[in-house]
Design brief:
By secondary structure, the chain is α/β, with parallel strands linked by helices. It has helices at 7-12, 34-38, 54-62, 75-87, 103-106, 136-145, 159-171, 183-186, 195-202; strands spanning 20-21, 44-48, 67-72, 93-97, 112-118, 146-156, 175-180, 208-213. It has an eight-stranded mixed sheet, with helices on both faces. The chain starts with 6 loop residues before the first helix and ends in a 6-residue tail after the last strand. The model has no long low-confidence stretch (mean pLDDT 93). S-adenosyl-L-homocysteine binds next to strand 3 and helix 9.
């Protein structure tokens, strides 16, 4: 998602300081302490690449029993997610302007129960494969912060990225389930649409979805 940098957001985002840590803010001190930050121990689910937050805010509203942390590299889009969280008065969501490449600085080993990736940037060129959020490098980071039985849930309309991801996850020892190349055909009532999902499916694109269980220690 590309947005022209909007300078007013750097100030406006401070209105939502209860929900979001802005660019330059540092929440790595919360590694291992997220339960304390939320003021309760509860399962911790995170989303990487939150965008404008339609998915995560709706998910958090439907599941008040879960603590949610959303990571997004671009402050310019995360502002809109923070505004939605504030308008809905959600208590169980925090948002961080953060590059997921540094994931292991933000969460302690086995602190996270579930990771969501939605419509991640495809990086189609082979020489950019390492930047894909489902590359072996990123899967190793997820593995490091996930609990033993933790899982990754991934949706995308980009079938090149989807098939690459299925292959890579399998090769890295993740256990795949609920794989579909046409999620909407299943009509699952608990599917929450992201901004991209709404846009691309309106144009006729099919959506792939996989749930991947973290490899065991030996795996
Ligand atoms: N999930 C949203 C947005 C998809 S676009 C939706 O489905 O509508 C992908 C998003 O991931 C962009 O907003 C981009 O800034 C973010 N992103 C890409 N790489 C990232 C990284 N390494 N860390 C955090 N966010 C990242």
């Amino acid at each position: 998602m590309r947005l022209r940098r909007k300078p007013w957001i750097d100030t406006a985002i401070l209105d939502y300081a209860d929900f979001v840590t802005p660019l330059g803010g540092d929440w790595t001190a919360f590694s291992g302490m997220w339960a304390e930050l939320f003021g309760r121990s509860a399962p911790l689910h995170i989303e990487i690449g939150v965008g404008k937050g339609d998915f995560l805010t709706e998910l958090a509203a439907r599941h008040p029993e879960i603590n949610y942390v959303g990571l997004e590299a671009q402050q310019g889009v995360l502002y809109f997610a923070a505004r939605k969280a504030a308008e809905r008065g959600l208590k169980n969501i925090r948002l961080v302007v953060f590059d997921a490449a540094r994931l292991t600085e933000l969460f302690a080993p086995a602190e996270v129960d579930r990771i969501y990736l939605n419509f991640s940037d495809p990086w189609p060129k082979a020489r950019h494969a390492k930047r894909r959020l489902t590359s072996p490098l990123f899967l190793a980071r997820y593995r490091a912060v996930l609990k033993a039985d933790g899982e990754l849930r991934f949706k995308t309309d980009n079938m090149g990225l989807f098939d690459y991801s299925l292959e890579t996850m399998e090769r890295e020892g993740w256990q795949l389930s609920r794989v579909t190349h046409d999620l909407h055909a299943l009509g699952e009532a608990d599917n929450i649409m992201t901004e991209y999902e709404r846009k691309f499916s309106a144009r006729g694109a099919k959506i792939g979805r996989v749930v991947a269980r973290r490899p065991s220690e030996q795996g």
